Amino acid sequence: MSRAVAFTIDLFVIALLFSLGGHVVEYVLSVLLREPVRLSETSWASRIALVVWAFVYCAYPLAASGHTLGMAIVGVRAVRADGRDLNGRHAIVRVLAFPLSFLLFGIGFLLILLRRDRRALHDVI
After folding, report:
1. Which pLDDT score is estimated for 24?
2. How does pLDDT run across 11-40, given as a tens digit for each residue?
3. SS in 3 state form for 3-47?
4. Which residues contact 58 (CB under 8 A, 6 or more apart)?
5. Distance between the two ends of the chain, CA-based, in angstroms?
6. DSSP 8-class letter at 86
7. What torsion, rounded to 10 degrees, do the Cα atoms 21, 7, 76, 17 define?
């Protein structure tokens, strides 16, 4: 349950900061170019930027401290299978593997309930 709460907090923070950052970038570009700039009109670029932002938001703090903001709030920490801290490579692989846990209606998360060590598919990978 705490992992779901952490994930929800992280989703909220990712969306909030992305939205605020987008408005700041639009404003700065509008001032510099002296014409209105609407990043939302380029949906493909916005989607790519959101994916990149979400990746950085998750991977960097996991590598640096073992948790995202949401995980820190609920007291969850990601570590390697042997209990050591995540390094940059392990954090990147974990973040890239995370969407796999959603495939097939979230079966990757079902492993949390089935495994004694409470690891989801992206944790195992």
Report:
1. 93
2. 999 999 999 998 998 899 899 989 888 877
3. HHHHHHHHHHHHHHHHHHHHHHHHHHHHHHHCCCCCHHHCHHHHH
4. 10, 68, 91, 95, 98
5. 21
6. P
7. 10
